[in-house]
Design a protein that fits this description.
- The chain has about 425 residues and is mainly alpha-helical.
- Helices cover about 35% and strands about 5% of the residues.
- It has 16 helices and 6 strands.
- It has helices at about 15-25, 25-35, 55-60, 70-75, 80-85, 90-100, 120-130, 135-140, 145-150, 155-170, 175-185, 190-195, 200-205, 220-230, 235-255, 405-415, and strands at about 15, 40-45, 50-55, 75-80, 105-110, 115-120.
- The strands form 2 sheets. A 3-stranded antiparallel beta sheet has the order 1-3-2. Strands 4-6-5 form a 3-stranded antiparallel beta sheet.
């Protein structure tokens, strides 16, 4: 939906694009005609900071003699090569005259090589070439004063363009803040913040600041080069712009002060009186009363049948059970030992194993009952495996049979067979 439905428009005015189409001009030529005062505009009453062209102004421009050729000649711009041909001088001399400030550019753009191309008004070049006071500059040797400035690296093309563009924006500015914004457009944000310290005034100044000419897409190197041209670089130019901005801001502050948000009353915060911190509760560091502790195994006195290789501490009851509050272990072979107490290491292989106890001979018809051996019984030594003969060095020999007195036989002797159902 068009925005014209929300803003009042006058039937006797039109937009700049429509006015350029009716006059048969390109948009660039139309903008230069407005900049040089060939076409007058009026501010847009609908807001937004735009301008419109009256129908009466369009008719006035059409009624001029030689329209549109006469208007196009007044707004025609040329580059360095074309301008030098128009003045009938070499391009190098034309560039030197522009660098010392004798030829003032009216516009610029960046070519595909990101080089700055300056444009000059053709009518001004013709007037400079036909002037009798400039004849010594067009022919012969360049004056010594100009050669000294050129040797020092003077280039006033960007500064002259900024001064010309500033005059154009001041002519179109409406109101004191708009004029201050036109001056602030050529200063860096740090300089503007140093002069206008009030954040509300600085925000209003930035809204009144005209949009700089755009060159290239945002984020590309072209806008950075254009920003370097549109921002003051020389110290004397920066000082003059700062003083002019301070004067215009002071004038605008006295004529139309910036609106500020209404101050809201701050309600006092009601805080309660501080209360003393209660003493900390006593920390329980001792063991709980209901904690169950497992009894440690008792040391049994060495008997006559114990050998010197047996340990001094042993479990006297092989089927000892430990009862917990919620769990009972009834397996006769389950035993618990302290984490720090370990079973004795098996005897050295060179030590002589103890004699195997003799089992009583059962009578005919009676079952044989074997009593479990104590935990302290020494573990029978495990024989190392016999080395096997390497392949291809002799006939294979049968492997030696394992001794029945191994770990499994020892476990069978310690675990008697259950005669009844096991308890759970």
């Amino acid at each position: 939906m068009s925005a014209d439905l929300f803003r009042p428009t006058s039937p006797d005015t039109c937009k700049p694009s429509d006015a350029a189409r009716e006059l048969g001009l390109k948009r660039g030529d139309f903008d230069r005609a407005v900049q040089f005062g060939c076409i007058r505009t009026v501010p847009d009453e609908g807001g937004g900071g735009g301008h419109r062209v009256e129908r009466a102004e369009i008719e006035r421009v059409r009624a001029q003699d030689g329209f549109p050729e006469s208007l196009l000649d007044r707004v025609r711009v040329v580059g360095t090569a074309e301008g030098a041909a128009l003045m009938e001088i070499p391009a190098g001399r034309f560039t030197r005259l522009a660098r010392v400030g004798l030829l003032v550019p009216v516009a610029f753009y960046l070519n595909r090589y990101r080089a700055v191309v300056w444009l000059y008004l053709a009518e001004e070049l013709r007037q400079f070439a036909t002037g009798a006071e400039n004849a010594h500059l067009l022919k012969g040797r360049t004056p010594e004063t100009l050669r000294g400035r050129l040797a020092a690296g003077v280039d006033l093309r960007a500064r002259n363009w900024r001064g010309r563009h500033l005059g154009f924006m001041l002519r179109r500015a409406e109101g004191p803040w708009a004029r201050a914004g036109a001056v602030a457009a050529f200063l860096s944000p740090a300089d503007v913040a140093d002069i206008v310290k009030d954040p509300y005034e600085r925000a209003h100044l930035n809204r009144s600041r005209p949009t700089p000419p755009g060159h290239g897409a945002p984020g590309s190197p072209a806008p950075y080069a254009a920003e370097r041209i549109t921002t003051a670089q020389d110290a004397d130019e920066i000082g003059w712009l700062r003083s002019e901005l301070a004067r215009l801001v002071e004038e605008a502050r006295s004529i139309s002060p910036v609106a500020r948000p209404a101050a809201r009353p701050i309600r006092p915060v009601l805080r309660r009186a501080p209360r003393p911190i209660p003493p900390m509760a006593r920390t329980v560091t001792g063991p709980a009363e209901g904690t169950t502790r497992f009894p440690k195994p008792t040391a049994s006195p060495p008997g006559p049948e114990s050998s010197s290789s047996e340990p001094t501490h042993r479990l006297t009851e092989p089927t000892r059970r430990f009862t917990e509050p919620t769990r009972r272990f009834t397996e006769p072979t389950r035993r618990f030992t302290e984490p720090t107490q370990r079973l004795p290491e098996p005897a050295a292989r060179t030590a002589k194993p103890t004699a195997r106890p003799t089992w009583p001979t059962a009578r005919p018809g009676e079952p044989v009952v074997r009593h479990p051996e104590p935990m302290s019984a020494p573990r029978p030594a495990v024989r190392p495996p016999a080395p096997t003969a390497p392949r291809g060095h002799g006939p294979a020999q049968p492997a030696p049979q394992r001794s029945p007195r191994g770990l499994r036989a020892w476990l069978r002797r310690r675990s008697p067979r259950r005669t009844g159902p096991a308890r759970v």
